[in-house]
C-alpha cells in the first residue's frame, strides 16, 4: 500500500529506494549538512522566555538554543580507556559541559560493545570518526527479514536519520513532557534513539500529589506550557491568570529540571543494567542502573587520567553525588581528581559532593579510608541537614558501597 510504520507507529509514505548508504555516506552527508553556526543544541525547542521570567538559569526562562561549544570548533575529543566488565573499553570525554548528544549515544554503544573497536592506543578521536562508527551501528540495525515492507520502512528511517545526523555534534531538538520519564514530544531526532534501541530519559515530572500543578501543567510539553503561561497571564479571566501563575511557579521551582517524583519514577522505569541517555539542563549524559541505583558516566576531560573516576551517582535532586570506579565502588580518588581538574564551578561543586559523601558514610557508621577528621565530617552532615527543604519529600539514599 506504499506505507510503513516508523518506530513511533507513525505512518509514512515510502517509495522504492536505491541501495542503502554506507557509513561513509552517512558521515559525508552529515558533514555536508553541518550547520554554519556551531554550538550547543536546540534544547527543549528553545521557545521565547515567558514574561516575568526569573534570573538567567531559571526554568521560566527558556533554555538557550545555541551556546559556544569548543568541541565543535576543535572537532576532536580525548579518549579515556577504562576496564569495563573485564574488557578494555573507550569512553569519549569532552572539555566543556556542552549538550553534545553524539558523545552520550556513542558512549552507550561503546559500553555495549556495539560500536567497532578503536585501536588500543587511540588517545584522540574526531567527530568525523565518531560519525563513521555511528553510521556502522545504524546500518547494522537493518532487519534480517527480506520482506519489502520492512526494507522500505528501514530505508525511510535511514533517510530520516541522515537529516538528523548533522545535529548530533551540536544538539538535538528535545521537548519534554512532564507526565513521564520517557515522554517527549515526537521530533524527527527521536529516530536516532529508536533505530539504535537506546532509551532516552528525563526526570522533570509533576508530583501527582500537587493537584493544582497537575491541573495547570496537564499533558503539555515544555514549549506548550511556556505558551500557555504567556496566554494565561494576558487573560481577563482570573482563574486562567491564577493557573498561569501556578504553571510559572512550577517551572521556577524546578529549575534543576529534576524533581523528587521524577527521580523516583526514573529509578523505577530504568531496567537493571540498562544503558541509556539522560537529558537534563541542556546536557545529554550516558546513564546506567546498577543494583537499583542510577549512575551517570563521568565524561569531563579533567578526569581523563583518573581511572577510578568512571561513574557519578544520581540519587538526589540537589546535586549531591559521589564518584565511583568502573565496578561502582566509592572512589577515594574523586576529591584529588577534582582538585587537579580545571577549577570551574562544576568541578568545585564535585569536591563538595565528595566531602558530603564521606560525611554521610561516617554518619552511617562506615569508615572510608583517607579521612580521619570525624568532627569535620559531622559538621558537613549537619550543614546538609540544615539546607534540606522543610516540607516532607521523598529522598533516595546514596547507593550502598
TrEMBL record:
<feature type="region of interest" description="Disordered">
    <location>
        <begin position="1"/>
        <end position="69"/>
    </location>
</feature>
<dbReference type="GO" id="GO:0071108">
    <property type="term" value="P:protein K48-linked deubiquitination"/>
</dbReference>
<feature type="region of interest" description="Disordered">
    <location>
        <begin position="381"/>
        <end position="401"/>
    </location>
</feature>
<dbReference type="GO" id="GO:0006508">
    <property type="term" value="P:proteolysis"/>
</dbReference>
<dbReference type="GO" id="GO:1990380">
    <property type="term" value="F:K48-linked deubiquitinase activity"/>
</dbReference>
<keyword id="KW-0378">Hydrolase</keyword>
<keyword id="KW-0645">Protease</keyword>
<dbReference type="GO" id="GO:0071944">
    <property type="term" value="C:cell periphery"/>
</dbReference>
<protein>
    <recommendedName>
        <fullName>Ubiquitin carboxyl-terminal hydrolase</fullName>
        <ecNumber>3.4.19.12</ecNumber>
    </recommendedName>
</protein>
<dbReference type="GO" id="GO:0140934">
    <property type="term" value="F:histone deubiquitinase activity"/>
</dbReference>
<dbReference type="GO" id="GO:0016807">
    <property type="term" value="F:cysteine-type carboxypeptidase activity"/>
</dbReference>
<feature type="compositionally biased region" description="Low complexity">
    <location>
        <begin position="381"/>
        <end position="390"/>
    </location>
</feature>
<dbReference type="GO" id="GO:0036435">
    <property type="term" value="F:K48-linked polyubiquitin modification-dependent protein binding"/>
</dbReference>
<dbReference type="InterPro" id="IPR007518">
    <property type="entry name" value="MINDY"/>
</dbReference>
<feature type="compositionally biased region" description="Low complexity">
    <location>
        <begin position="45"/>
        <end position="62"/>
    </location>
</feature>
<comment type="similarity">
    <text>Belongs to the MINDY deubiquitinase family. FAM63 subfamily.</text>
</comment>
<dbReference type="InterPro" id="IPR033979">
    <property type="entry name" value="MINDY_domain"/>
</dbReference>
<dbReference type="GO" id="GO:0005829">
    <property type="term" value="C:cytosol"/>
</dbReference>
<keyword id="KW-0788">Thiol protease</keyword>
<comment type="function">
    <text>Hydrolase that can specifically remove 'Lys-48'-linked conjugated ubiquitin from proteins. Has exodeubiquitinase activity and has a preference for long polyubiquitin chains. May play a regulatory role at the level of protein turnover.</text>
</comment>
<feature type="domain" description="MINDY deubiquitinase">
    <location>
        <begin position="76"/>
        <end position="328"/>
    </location>
</feature>
<feature type="compositionally biased region" description="Pro residues">
    <location>
        <begin position="391"/>
        <end position="401"/>
    </location>
</feature>
<keyword id="KW-0833">Ubl conjugation pathway</keyword>
<dbReference type="Pfam" id="PF04424">
    <property type="entry name" value="MINDY_DUB"/>
</dbReference>
<dbReference type="GO" id="GO:0004843">
    <property type="term" value="F:cysteine-type deubiquitinase activity"/>
</dbReference>
